[in-house]
């Protein structure tokens, strides 16, 4: 049996660990043959197929990124996409595909499975927002990096009586903000799931200054203020009257500085959250996912993805991951209210 | 309501995060009053009671160790232990107790609960072997430290064609060895749950050398060879014929060196596995455990401990934790056989 | 003898280590008495004097920031500044002052010394640009943080065929950019000392893509393109025709993307470069500086600062530090040209 | 010109960075051709010569260990050693050799240079004890690792009222012990250069307990007690009356426990001190050494090694490094006495 492996979407620590697990077990236990599909679905469209064997996966376990490359190409965006994927698989005698990715990549996988292509999914994303699994690899590493950054900012905040706003990743889900904010001892945590009240945020900041500690505000990139609160000042508009600030973090720091009369600074962590060596847990989870995904191929169970349920790895229909993202439950967010302000 | 908090057993990253969560929510939400019990159950026996309020828990979130001190004192070991604990609680008007600890500490808590003392448990241990919960805080930090050490040893192993044996913590359960061994890419992982065959271990080591990579062997301190195999050789004796090795790691390294004819070295990680700042996950889990434990007191649900079940925090009878430790399932261990040798 | 200690300017890992060294040796060896001056020169102006003794410095060695607070207040900016500093010292019976800071703080110290105030300087700055010393504490930590971030970005760059621009601190001197760029394996390093040629930078970036590796560009916040090259496009202007991009990093990424036709992203490391626990070397250097500064007070040698010369700690006139900053020698920069492109 | 590169002695973070610097500049600037000599001097004896070009050094900068392998083989130990080295060089048309190593490797290089072989040396060692240079790469990484371990042990020490003894590398020189001990806030630091008094050590430990802080003792593996003090007590004997302790750290912990009546534990850091990714400074220094070493070959200046002098890289005769090791000056050690006890 010849199996293709591809990694799609944003890169994420643990991808290489998953690839290694798949190839090691596939070759050594199940007797499979492997090829790599370059740059996510793009390779499946364009015939970007490369060799993939046990020597190719030696030493990659602790390395971030993906040896297969990635892209955000969506084969469903072009009319003949599915047809071309099918052709590529036929041309290279690929019997089944293991697709490692987030909601988008797995959504494509689900659609291809519906078309009869033999595919197994592996969920990954630093955002932790794939539905159907308790967690995804990449998330733990991202949270550790963000927490370490918040730890560092505490000392600057305390030495200078200023507010520090940290913008972390999370366009649609606030998992990184919530975990790193709680772990880092932030005084305010703002997530996309819950529009925030700027007055309340400033109140929390003022409270914090009263006990002589400087406030740290963690905000997910996708968080937004309540309707009507993002009144844009002249100085914050570009020549066409559009907001010219680059992100919610910068906007919020300006608001806080204006309202409290005390200096506020922003740090945007950006891509350092998704790079570098994976945490031990992410290597562990990615390895387990890889091993179980290749088992699913062996058992000819397609149209599924592997998922974490408690401490077990289970299989769920790909459709679950494609149905929408997993967001932070308001009740969970509310649990931490005691730390705000 | 006045609540006492104690930390017992070996220290563990996240203890302070749990204490902070308990005190912040207890004071600010439930209106409780707190005292600290010094040095685990010893303080409960001897009246070692100290003040504990919100200012006392400021800044402790990222700090390892425990501000309350710890010990392995067991009040059940002396005849009047339970009586003395009861007296201390009465003397200081303590209405309920939150006990943070591993199997031993929680076992004592279970016994005291049976005697009518109002106690809530919080599981902790770097060994991850408390029954009744999916995981305990401290474990993730320990695994990260061990994995980072294994990462470092790989480069030495590769540069010198030698076997490196790493002894990690785990007297009765192999969780740290298994997780860090898989995350670190070890070639052999030995756990207490499964007596190992020295011949097989040496075979794996030899295989590894054949592909020009140096072998890393991770061994839990409680792992043992199959019956009869720990025959002490002459070379493991001192000049008077006595065994002179300190742990299984050192014994195994010598065996491997003797049998393969290639140099082998041991590293014993020891206490660095349980110190220092907790990982983000351990701070998160400890904080959640703390918040929920104090809620249990508020709801007057005693004789229970908080526990992780999937992504939820639940309450389980203390008796569950006291019934025995959680060990590595042979089936889980077997999953990783593909990476051995 | 009563000695005041103050920390001025931006905060910097190692300040607490220096304070601890001063107080431990001053009290235990020289029999001095200490007070802390709050928030840099502001406390010297306004009577912000706090107790400072051996218990106050326990446990602060590994902590970033400064227990004394800091500010950029300059007493020379107001007419009666020197007079007020003198009064504060007299009011609190302070015989001598140890001022820890960068060029600005030490410049004030030099001026006060000229006015007869007994002051000893200790150089610190993450920028490494204080004249008269081989190095300052804080720099090594900042370089380690920036290098770790660059390490992380490599994996993202490689997985996605994009250029990553990293903006690091350094308004007037390129030390952090140069050290972290070399240590992190950057393909382009741009420093304030040498205006860069955008065409050349894009050429280097293109070269890098040719060998299938993604380029990393490290740019100091104070780096500027050659005259005339920062032609601002319409889309980069605000409503008054002014450049609206926030820093050179963002501007450069846009230029590179426009010219190469390939995606480019910016990461601005910002304040995480100056926070958190100091590296071992910074703790060592700060401790040595502290010990030697208090020796200078004992020997009544004022108007000097301690400095690193090779592996020795020496004393140099404060005027040396006040005379201007230490920048990167063009010859040193040129040494690394082989790694560009 | 064809240049051979070899790495000898214990492995050390930064070796790959040095190799990369040599090859990149040698090929791209000087037009040299390179070969690698496998496993230190062993390859020079046995014809272990491998290709070494620019693609071979891509991506190795952040990796510990050495891509060329290492050994402690000494060609001067066999009568025809020099002859065989000369033959290997002739067989493979190698015109000059760059030897990267510590005292032993550089001593061999000095002897070969005396025999007319064209050799340039690059000093490396985690022990920092090569004479003729202010510092060697590898040392900063080792100190950071040891300091981080000491940081972790503080929390355990404080939580349990016990003494923790940390044994670090340093057979003949106490640099790692001194730097990491000072950076980690140890209460006692023991180095090979100065035999220690066990009574004094125990006195310091007792002092520390009095102020309720637990003592950390850092001891270099080569440190020894004053003459006559290592009397082996009954408790240090096994049941047959024989010594059963493995190193000075373990011996000392037992002595302290016996004399103070309080628990004492040992941690032996071992090989994790020499592995893993190099610190930023070590990558910087190794890169600079590499660039300058290949310049020396270009300028046909042989029989020298590159060395750090202040912030400059200079050349010194290889004989300087071969003359003996650089140890800790008693005056420097005495400077830190204030922190002991």
UniProtKB/TrEMBL annotation, chains A, B, C, D:
One of its GO terms (biological process) is canonical glycolysis. The record marks 104 as: Important for catalytic activity and substrate specificity. The record marks 124 as: Important for catalytic activity. GO terms for cellular component: 6-phosphofructokinase complex. One of its GO terms (molecular function) is monosaccharide binding. Mg(2+) binds at residue 103. It is found in: Cytoplasm. SUPFAM superfamilies: Phosphofructokinase (SSF53784). Residues 2-297 form the Phosphofructokinase domain. This is Pyrophosphate--fructose 6-phosphate 1-phosphotransferase. Diphosphate binds at residue 10. Keywords: Cytoplasm, Glycolysis, Kinase, Magnesium, Metal-binding, Transferase. It comes from the Bacteria. It catalyses: beta-D-fructose 6-phosphate + diphosphate = beta-D-fructose 1,6-bisphosphate + phosphate + H(+). Substrate binds at residues 125-127, 162, 169-171, 221, 265, 271-274. Its main location: cytoplasm. Its EC number is 2.7.1.90. Its cofactor is Mg(2+). Non-allosteric. The active site is at 127 (proton acceptor). Pathway: Carbohydrate degradation; glycolysis; D-glyceraldehyde 3-phosphate and glycerone phosphate from D-glucose: step 3/4. Catalyzes the phosphorylation of D-fructose 6-phosphate, the first committing step of glycolysis. Uses inorganic phosphate (PPi) as phosphoryl donor instead of ATP like common ATP-dependent phosphofructokinases (ATP-PFKs), which renders the reaction reversible, and can thus function both in glycolysis and gluconeogenesis. Consistently, PPi-PFK can replace the enzymes of both the forward (ATP-PFK) and reverse (fructose-bisphosphatase (FBPase)) reactions. It comes from Streptomyces botrytidirepellens. Homodimer or homotetramer. Belongs to the phosphofructokinase type A (PFKA) family. Mixed-substrate PFK group III subfamily. PANTHER family: ATP-DEPENDENT 6-PHOSPHOFRUCTOKINASE 3, PHOSPHOFRUCTOKINASE.
């Amino acid at each position: 049996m010849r199996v293709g492996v591809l990694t799609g979407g944003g890169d994420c620590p643990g991808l290489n660990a998953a690839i290694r697990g798949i190839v090691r077990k596939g070759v050594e236990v199940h007797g499979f043959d492997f090829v790599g599909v370059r740059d996510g679905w793009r390779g499946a469209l364009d015939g970007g197929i490369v060799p993939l064997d046990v020597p190719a996966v030696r030493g990659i376990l602790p390395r971030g990124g993906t040896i297969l490359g990635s892209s955000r190409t969506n084969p469903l965006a072009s009319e003949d996409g599915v047809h071309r994927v099918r052709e590529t698989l036929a041309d290279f005698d690929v019997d089944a595909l293991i697709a490692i990715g987030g909601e988008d990549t797995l959504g494509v996988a689900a659609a291809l499975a519906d078309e009869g292509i033999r595919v197994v999914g592996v969920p990954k994303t630093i955002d932790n927002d794939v539905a159907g699994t308790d967690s995804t690899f990449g998330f733990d590493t991202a949270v550790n990096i963000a927490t370490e950054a918040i730890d560092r900012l505490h000392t600057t905040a305390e030495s200078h009586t200023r507010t520090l706003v940290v913008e972390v990743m999370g366009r649609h889900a606030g998992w990184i903000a919530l975990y790193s904010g709680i772990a880092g001892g932030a005084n305010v945590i703002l997530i996309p799931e819950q529009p925030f009240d700027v007055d309340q945020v400033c109140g929390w900041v003022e409270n914090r200054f009263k006990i002589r500690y400087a406030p740290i505000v963690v905000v997910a990139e996708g968080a937004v203020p309540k309707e009507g609160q993002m009144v844009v000042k002249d100085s914050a508009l570009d020549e066409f009257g559009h907001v010219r600030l680059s992100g919610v973090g910068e906007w919020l720091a300006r608001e806080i500085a204006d309202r409290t009369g005390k200096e506020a600074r922003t740090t945007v962590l950006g891509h350092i959250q998704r790079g570098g060596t994976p945490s031990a847990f992410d290597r562990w989870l990615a390895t387990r996912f890889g091993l179980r995904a290749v088992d699913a191929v062996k058992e000819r169970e397609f149209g599924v993805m592997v998922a974490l349920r408690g401490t077990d790895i289970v299989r769920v229909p790909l459709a679950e991951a494609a149905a929408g993202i997993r967001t932070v439950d308001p009740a969970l967010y509310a649990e931490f209210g005691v730390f705000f302000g």
